[in-house]
Design a protein that fits this description.
With 351 residues, this protein is of the alpha/beta class. The chain folds into two domains: 9-114, Response regulator (Rossmann fold, 3-Layer(aba) Sandwich); 120-347, P-loop containing nucleotide triphosphate hydrolases (Rossmann fold), CATH 3.40.50. The protein contains 16 helices and 13 strands. It has helices spanning 18-30, 43-46, 56-59, 81-90, 102-114, 133-146, 162-166, 177-183, 188-193, 216-224, 241-247, 262-276, 296-303, 315-322, 326-329, 335-347, and strands at residues 9-14, 33-37, 52-55, 68-75, 92-97, 120-126, 151-155, 197-198, 201-204, 232-236, 253-258, 282-288, 307-312. The strands form two sheets. It has an eight-stranded mixed sheet with strand order 8-9-7-10-6-11-12-13, with helices on both faces. Strands 2-1-3-4-5 form a five-stranded parallel sheet, with helices on both faces. α13 (296-303) links the parallel β12 (282-288) and β13.
Length: 351
Amino acid sequence: MIDDGRASRRLVVAIADGGVLQTVSRLANMAGFAVEAVPTAALAVASSDAPVVCDVESARALVGPPPDARLIVVSGREPRPEDWRVALAAGARRLVVLPQEQQAFLESLHDTVSGRARGRLVCVLPGRGGAGASVLSATLALALASGDRQTMLLDLDPSGGGQELLLGLERSEGCRWSEVLERGLVDAAAVSAALPVVAGVSVLTGDAREHVEVAPAVVRTFVSVDSGRHEWVVADLPRRREIVSTALPAADLAVVVVTPDVRGVAAAVRLVDAARALCRDVRAVVRCPERAQLRMREVAATVGVPVIAGWGWDRRTGQIVDAGTFAGRWRSTTAAPVAAQVINALAEPDR
């Protein structure tokens, strides 16, 4: 909670919904802000030297890329994909649903005055089932952690316990998605402290013995709030539309893993089109078996986004995963140099 300079902070607010406005005012006062309500037409001028909270309709009047940590967009209902696009175009880092996500709102207010650097979020998506997105996600997280970066791996397809099995965590102590959902844990910092850690990576994954469904509201809490507590968050995404549309607006980079066959590319094109409406930087990694139907250049031209790297098949990877030794032997797989090229892509954004 913020406890310094309580009377001197000004918060500009443009919200039409009276209930949401009341919630924002109450929380802002708790955090030590003096609320200045303005009409949408005056928002751009009034916000020149103060953080801003506005609703989706008011956000349409703002143009603010690159993302501005001082802008928070709020909504009184579950956001639609279009709402996320509006918030993204306005330059907001977060879209918070009130009153459900009051903690996330307070975290956002804290960020506006603390100067705390925001962590970076990378989302990895499979162009089609079996493309290898989970392996690349795990490799990328392990590569980042090996450079002494605080890293979290967020398994957003926990129904099969994918990252638990991949990283050999079946016998490791620590919080899983089932416990998060059962106990209603939405404090990302508390959850982070309770996660299993492998090779320096904190891993939030499912239990391979249980089937769980993670709601979009829970996903939003972790991709928006927890990304400020780690230098890096790598999210292993499924192809579920509601999860993709919730996670991608917070991402610095979305990587789609494409298989170079006709059906794989067709599936990837649909996913890429959806991803580009939600994330500024979408790129591809192309799996490259020896007898690929399509060459990498053709794949790049068809999917319509830059290709970071080609990823050759590696039969040993499956053996390493099955042996439960991937966390210690990832450097010997062909996924390792691909992860390094993804990290280079983050250092030199394409747009």
